[in-house]
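**Protein of interest**
===
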Amino acid sequence: MTKRVVKGLGIGLALAVLSGCGTVTHPTSASAPITIGYENAPDPEAVAIAQHFFQKEMGPVKLEYFESGPAALTALASGKLDFMTTLGNPPTAAAIARGVPLEVIWAMERYTTGEGLVVRKSSHITSLKGLEGQSVALVKGSTSPFELETALTLDHIPLTDVNEINMSPTEMVAAWKTGQINAAYVWVPFDTEMAADGGRMLMYDQNVYQTAPIFNLAVVNSRWAKTHRNAVEGFIRAESLGVQFFRQHPAKAYQDMAEVNGITASQARAQAAGLSFTTLAQQLTPSRLGSGSGVAHSLVTRSLTSAAAWLYRTGQIASLPHNMAQYVNPAYCAQVLKGTAGHD
């Protein structure tokens, strides 16, 4: 079954259990497959999936595909997922506010031009001001309304002047093709598909980077992690190997991204250009998770804090979580880095 077919089956359907692929060099003691939820993205994690790095580093692994972060939160909260990846900071902050036991353990990538506002050329919308009185499709609870509303506020445009329509990314593309919507704020590959079909990009996440940086984050169930430290470190190694493979074998990496995401290698290369990827060593820098006392001021912690403030201001969470730094844990990365010194 190709990834394109799997995507067409709908949100939340589980992929087949991917186990026994390659030699397990760092097996865990878990008796059942470790469950990792993920979303599609043209990134090194897709390479890690294609190269079976998770199985090689963790043992039997079950991968479950989700179309968006909000769709995965129920599974994460119920304990059905041990890990969830490709989560934006608003869904992650919302999960924290609602008491989901999680820790951010890997900052996968920061969005630069990998998410943004696409508008139909024939709509004559040429600026954010042109959205007044218009409708914009987006995924409620995801990064999209956070970014759009931040941009509107910076441009002094009342949020009530723009009608937000909640749609899944695939619903947006279908509505776009039938002429039902003229604007959407969403991530790759959905925005690029609409842009190629009579649209153009009006803005990107990069435009509001200083105010609302957006990350794809990987989290672990913090209760589960306490008794499965080896598995968590295996997860970190697998993610790191994906980044290393991408840097060392870019042509093959783009082919892997294409296979996992159901796109062409050229599309994978173009879409990946909108993301800033992170090596293992970079995880411990202020621009990602940080380390020691610096975690409190790291860009990931700040991104979660700003997202939570927006969620609270818009009534999506009942209270503001205190001290977001306690949910950002670089210790696993630090331990793995210690064991791979000179190889990252």
In short: The chain has a mean pLDDT of 88.
